[in-house]
Each structure stands twice: as structure tokens, then as C-alpha cells.
Specification:
Radius of gyration: 16 Å
Strand order of the largest sheet: 2-3-1-4
Shape: globular
Helix content: 25-40%
Distance between the termini: 12 Å
Number of strands: 4
Order of helices and strands: EHEHEHE
Structural class: alpha+beta
Largest sheet: 4 strands, antiparallel
Number of helices: 3
Length: 101
């Protein structure tokens, strides 16, 4: 079992749900996050009292799942990223689990 984490801009949230389903990952969690690029962080730091949001509305999805599901998911994400026309591809990482309860 491993932990897979996927981040996506708000525009692709429904697509990620479809990719998880197609990879047989039926149990997962998600969280709304703000995505930042390093130059945005510098601008935010220079404007300490900024009232506006500096990041892009994004989501993070994560699931504890088996290797074969992750392999399928990564294949699907690679294909998905080839088809998009924006500069915001889906990002995914895998974290091995040493212990779990």
C-alpha cells in the first residue's frame, strides 16, 4: 500500500474524480488548497497586508491504495496532461507507507 497525492487546478477537479474512478481508486480524500508559484510568494511577502488571494484555487486528492491502481492512475494522468491546453498539468506523487493501522 502507498499514498498517492494528486494536485489540480479547480478547472480539472471533475476530471481527477473520473481518473480516480477509472484507476479503481474508490476511496480517497480531498482538500481545497491555494496553489502558488515562487514569484507569487515573493510578491505576497512584499505586500504583507494584502487582502486579496495570491494563489490559484486548486484541490489536493489523496488515497491509500495498491501499486497497480497507482500505475493505472499515472498512465491516465500522463494521457490527460497531453490533451490539455493550459499551463496547469495535473501533478502526482507517490509516498511509500512504512506502517499503518
Amino acid at each position: 500500500m502507498k499514498l498517492v497525492i494528486v494536485t489540480a487546478v479547480e478547472e480539472y477537479q471533475k476530471d481527477v474524480l473520473t481518473l480516480f474512478k477509472n484507476a479503481n481508486i474508490e476511496k480517497f480524500s480531498s482538500s481545497d488548497i491555494d496553489g502558488h508559484k515562487s514569484d507569487s510568494a515573493i510578491l505576497m511577502a512584499s505586500n504583507w497586508f494584502s487582502s486579496g488571494k495570491g494563489g490559484s484555487q486548486s484541490s489536493m486528492f489523496f488515497s491509500f491504495t495498491e501499486d497497480e491502481n497507482i500505475d493505472t492512475l499515472f498512465h491516465l494522468i500522463k494521457e490527460f496532461n497531453k490533451s490539455i491546453e493550459t499551463n496547469n498539468p495535473l501533478k502526482a506523487v507517490v509516498v511509500p507507507i512504512e506502517k499503518s493501522i
